[in-house]
Amino acid sequence: MIVLESLHQIPAVFQPFQSVIAAESTRHGGISPFPFSSLNVGLNTTDLPEHVEENRRRFFSSLGISPEQVASSHQVHGDRILTVQQAGRFEGYDALITNQPHHFLTVTVADCTPILIYDAGQQAVAAIHAGWRGTVARIVEKTVQAMNDQFGSQPAACFAYVGTCIDQDSFEVGDEVAEQFDEAHKAFDVERQKFLIDLKAANVAQLVNAGIPASQVGVSPYSTVTHNRDFFSYRIEKGNTGRMVAVIGFRPAE
Q1: Which residues of the chain have pLDDT under 70?
Q2: pLDDT digits (tens, 9 = 90+) for 7-16
Q3: 55, 109, 141, 147: which could form a disulfide with 153 (CB 3.0–4.6 Å)?
Q4: List of domains in the chain
Q5: pLDDT tens, 39-66?
């Protein structure tokens, strides 16, 4: 069993860049009681708001981030992308991009896939929320294009991380969902009579298709389901659970 005890884990793909701050939260180190135990940072859960606020403070503080520097959105499983000019809470976006230092972009997950991107050439970042709907809508490819349009980002200079989400063996779907995925990212389980979808692989493929070298893409080794002790899973906990966040931003090089 993989056991994590920290409030966060740092994607190795970004570690060479001292100006970048990027992390995923775990479910450890917070104050929320069951079933949100313990580091629930989800703003739209039925946990007490003061618990969530303290949990978020702890998580961001562990990274040297002030909550006033954080940008987030109420996600709707769509493909809208917001260019962030100031921190705050927004509505209806599933991807955030910025080239502003000291602005830290977040996405909230509990089985869906978080994707973080850093453009080392133009100094820009992106945080993307991709459930199956966002993946089918190709939100990752659209975000890479938006970074190019807005900031002149070149995919060859970008580094990306596909974060912790539901694993393929746990993500059973029916024909109507499976038919929207490429053959390479689904498998039919005869015993269960269900298709199994690999969200990580599907989003890695989009990053590579968008031009980011595969060698510059990191992938979380964890699953929200099989490592449920360390991460929240909406599916296995039947919706009555907390949320994690993935965050990315940068400070100017000194």
Answers
A1: 1-5, 254
A2: 899 999 999 9
A3: 147
A4: 8-167+216-250 (3.60.140.10)
A5: 999 999 999 999 999 999 999 999 999 9
